[in-house]
Each structure stands twice: as C-alpha cells, then as structure tokens.
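Much of what follows relies on a compact textual record of a protein's fold. Think of the row as the fold of the chain written in a discrete alphabet. An example makes this concrete, so a full record is given next.


***
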Amino acid sequence: MKRTLISEPDRMVTAIEGVDEICQACPSRIGDQCRSTFIKEEMVRRLDALLLRDVQKSYGETLKVGQWQSAIHQKWPYRLCRVCRWRTYCSPQVT
C-alpha cells in the first residue's frame, strides 16, 4: 500500500473510521475489528482519532496523497509514533 501511495501522489484518499485498505492485509483483522493481542480495537480507533486531530483533519475528509503527506510531515514525529511498533513502516523517511 505504501509503495502505491508513494507512486501515486495525485490519488485521492479519504480518512475513514474503522477498517480501511491498510488494515485489509493484517492477520489480526477479523471482519471489521482489530483482534490483535498487542492493541485492541477501541485503542486503534482512539489513536486514529488523535492522529487525525494532530494533522488537523477529520473523518470523511478527502485529499490527494501528496496533501496528506504534507500535513503529516509538518509535525512528524508524533508522540504516539515514538512508541508504535509499526513506525518503521509508515515513517516519512521510509520508502
């Protein structure tokens, strides 16, 4: 997914609440829920909401990939990201 987004900066992406395209390949996803032993569904949703707030965006907002990247990079790294085990996958520096 990350390679696709990097190669298509004009692709439109909508922030949605809940399971999205990134979640589709996760083995911890069962239906529309995160069943990870590391983090629970409720926490995933809270973290998503906090990150959206940090980039001053909201659910339902649609922007080009490049616009999302710009908003994200303005404040990187986020406090939440410093302790996240997935940070190496979504870090702006990783391609």
Summary: The mean pLDDT is 83. The two ends are 11 Å apart (CA to CA). The chain has four helices and four strands.
